[in-house]
Task: inverse folding
């Protein structure tokens, strides 16, 4: 293979790797954004309350989540029950009591 063909091949290979990495990163960011959306129950918990009032709802794991009603920054008409404190994620689930 000539030097010129080798350079073109190498450049295309590097470009392909960069594009693949960018797509993988973008799709993982999309998954993170989807995961952050509050559950419907968090919206319903503040339906008849005012901003900064205490609220609670049953979470995804059938646990009671207590928090405060907040106005969403991207939608000033929507309020959601923001948990007072979030449970930290543990890699080893056996260590959770």
Result:
């Amino acid at each position: 293979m000539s030097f010129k063909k080798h350079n073109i091949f190498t450049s295309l290979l590097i470009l392909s790797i960069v594009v693949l990495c960018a797509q993988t990163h973008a799709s993982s960011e999309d998954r993170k954004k989807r995961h952050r959306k509050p559950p419907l129950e968090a919206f319903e918990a503040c339906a008849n309350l005012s901003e900064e009032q205490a609220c609670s709802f049953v979470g995804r794991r059938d646990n009671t989540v207590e928090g405060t009603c907040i106005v969403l920054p991207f939608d000033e008409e929507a309020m959601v029950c923001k948990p007072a404190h979030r449970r930290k994620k543990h890699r080893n689930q056996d260590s959770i009591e």
The chain is about 40% helix and 25% strand. The longest strand covers residues 64-72. The chain has two domains: 1-36, 38-86. The mean pLDDT is 80.
